[in-house]
Design goal:
The structure holds two protein chains of two kinds. By secondary structure, chain A is α/β, with parallel strands linked by helices. Chain A has ten helices and ten strands. Chain A has a domain of about 160 residues: P-loop containing nucleotide triphosphate hydrolases (Rossmann fold), CATH 3.40.50.300. Chain B is built from 16 helices and two strands. Classes of the chains: A alpha/beta, B mainly alpha. The interface between A and B is large, with 50 and 35 residues.
């Protein structure tokens, strides 16, 4: 049984039907890249899986549990983490408080130990625990958002364009972090505009176009197929 | 993993100076506020004004928890203030309760009322939330107006003067002495401030701020947003109810106006004058509002016109309020208290 099973998923923003009969699966411990042009429906797919779309139909099962009847908070508690693409850090809160948000919702009480543990992976955050999150650089804020998502030890993390607006050197470092997470058993579903980077990270790739799945293969195969990339992913 | 050099923020803040000053102020915010409250009767023009600042300051602190920290603008918080006051008075007049039992009745009753109103109101957002809270508070107002046998109707509830509060160990406080009464009431306000500070410093405090900033993101972080908002609403209602009980003990009457739209609106004005979403702001706002009222009403019966003009000027030119603007100024130098 796959960790995440999506079958005939449809999603709407009001009258706009943005995801059409989408089906795919993500196995435990793999990184799957969800790529496509701007407006293809990648973010809407993640939001539908996370329970943040106004209307979604079909079947989404996570670790055997059907997700669609559940609210976003209940999906999180099942072990589904989410790093959204929009402004990620809660203004007015320190780095520590932002991290605590991820712990409180998961019901973990060992706050100090959890923050020490996460600080080993994110040493720069450790130095800035009492600094307001929004005063950090874009790269640091992104790392804080990722740290907040993984501090509760989710089984799977949905990442929405984590490399957007980040310095290339930091993007590569982020890739190393994602590989480490995968090696530790965390499953990742990665939505990316930076197709080449995503395909080098992922084991499998899915292309979405106009809300529909149009291609699925190993990431290596898609990386080698420039025609497909140009047809569906070129800006 | 990220290296320190690569992730260094260009505008990284120093770990001393204004940062530590702001944090120290954060840490000592309750003792500092209580210290200011302690001297208030001696620095304000009258002790009556000091008691009003204490009571309305606490009322504003309760309101600020919902408006400033959770981002929900209620126009019906008079319902909780008035419920606290009425239930305190009614439990003395009709059931012969002592001061402590009456206060507990007031706070618990206001909390239950806020749970009911909150459960209905948090289903809505924005202007609809404002209107639902306003409408439900008006319902409470008219219930109090109609149930005159219990509440005194238009004349307000009278006849429950608590002259002396008996304490443990044979001690007692003479509530007819203005200064003793002030410090007696201040103890409850100080405990409430300590409680609010603990709430704001707790993970729940971070959660309500997350909800205020972006509900969707809070959901993505695993929070049950509706439950968080309801809990904040109830805590806010309980604090406003406590302010109402203190008002009842102070005045020995409960005017019907305690439940009116006017009371709901002045708490909004006080919060915005002081600075929504800041710990000290509510008391600053209550102090400024009541001081203007106190001074201006000596000159003219149209003092509300002056308060209105001051309020408009603040909204237009200092939307963060007095304390909020001071914080913004301090943040140019480093991390300021909230």
């Amino acid at each position: 049984m796959a960790m995440l099973e999506v079958e005939k998923l449809n999603a709407w923003y009001g009258p706009s039907h943005v995801v059409h009969d989408l089906s795919f699966a993500v196995e435990e411990g793999e990184i799957v890249a969800l790529v496509g042009r701007n407006g293809a429906g990648k973010t809407s797919t993640l939001r539908a899986i996370m329970g943040l779309m106004p209307r979604a139909e079909g079947r989404v099962a996570f670790d055997g549990t059907s997700l669609l009847p559940l609210g976003a908070h209940a999906r999180f508690r099942l072990g589904l983490g989410y790093v959204p693409e929009d402004r990620r850090i809660v203004p007015g809160l320190t780095v520590r408080e932002n991290l605590e948000l991820g712990l409180v919702a998961a019901g973990r009480t060992d706050v100090g130990a959890a923050i020490d543990e996460i600080a080993r992976s994110f040493p720069r955050l450790k130095e800035r625990l009492n600094q307001q999150g929004t005063t950090m650089s874009g790269g640091e804020q992104q790392m804080l958002a990722i740290a907040r998502a993984i501090i509760s030890r989710p089984k799977m993390v949905l990442l929405d364009e984590p490399s957007e607006g980040i310095m290339p050197v930091l993007v590569e470092e982020m890739g190393t972090l994602f590989r480490t997470l995968r090696d530790q058993g965390t499953t990742l579903l990665l939505v990316e505009q930076n197709v080449e980077w995503a395909l080098k990270l992922a084991g499998r790739a899915i292309i979405i176009d106009q809300g529909e799945k149009v291609y699925e293969s190993s990431a290596a195969a898609l990386l080698a197929d420039k025609d497909i990339q140009d047809r569906y992913c070129a800006v | 993993m990220m290296s320190t050099t690569e992730l260094a923020a260009p505008g990284a803040l120093p770990a001393h100076g204004p940062v530590s000053a702001g944090r120290a102020l954060d840490r000592w915010r309750v003792p500092l506020t209580v210290a200011v409250l302690c001297v208030l009767p001696f620095v304000l023009p009258s002790q009556a004004l000091a008691v009003n600042v204490l009571i309305y300051g606490l009322f504003t602190v309760g309101f600020n928890l919902l408006f400033g920290y959770t981002g929900l603008l209620s126009f019906g918080h008079a319902a909780f203030f008035g419920a606290g006051a009425y239930l305190t008075g009614m439990s003395i007049v009709h059931f012969g309760f002592g001061w402590l039992g009456a206060m507990l009745t007031g706070v618990v009753g206001a909390s239950l009322l806020s749970a009911v109103i909150g459960a209905l109101a948090i289903r809505t957002r924005g202007i609809y939330f404002c209107m639902v809270t306003l409408a439900l508070a008006q319902l409470v107002y008219y219930l109090a107006l109609q149930a005159s046998g219990w509440t005194g109707g238009e004349n307000g509830l009278r006849g429950f003067t608590v002259a002396r509060a008996e304490l443990i160990g044979g001690f007692s406080v003479n509530l007819l002495d203005p200064l003793q009464k002030y410090y007696f009431l201040m103890v409850f306000a100080a405990l409430a401030l300590w409680f609010v500070s603990r709430v704001l410093n707790s993970p729940f405090g971070a959660a309500i701020e997350a909800v205020r900033e972006n509900e969707t993101r809070a959901r993505a972080c695993g929070f049950d947003v509706e439950r968080t908002k309801l809990l904040s609403f109830i805590l806010s209602g309980a604090l406003c109810g406590l302010a109402g009980t203190l008002s009842a003990l102070h005045l020995s009457i409960v005017p019907l106006d305690a439940l009116s739209v006017h009371t709901s609106s002045i708490v909004v004005m006080m919060t915005m004058l002081g600075g929504a979403g800041s710990f000290f702001g509510p008391f600053v706002g209550a102090l400024v509002f009541l001081l203007i009222e106190d001074v201006a009403s000596l000159w003219t019966s149209h003092w509300q016109l002056i308060v209105g003009i001051v309020f408009i000027l603040f909204v237009l030119f200092m939307p963060k309020g007095i304390w909020g603007s001071l914080i913004a100024l301090a943040r140019r130098e480093g991390r300021a208290p909230r």
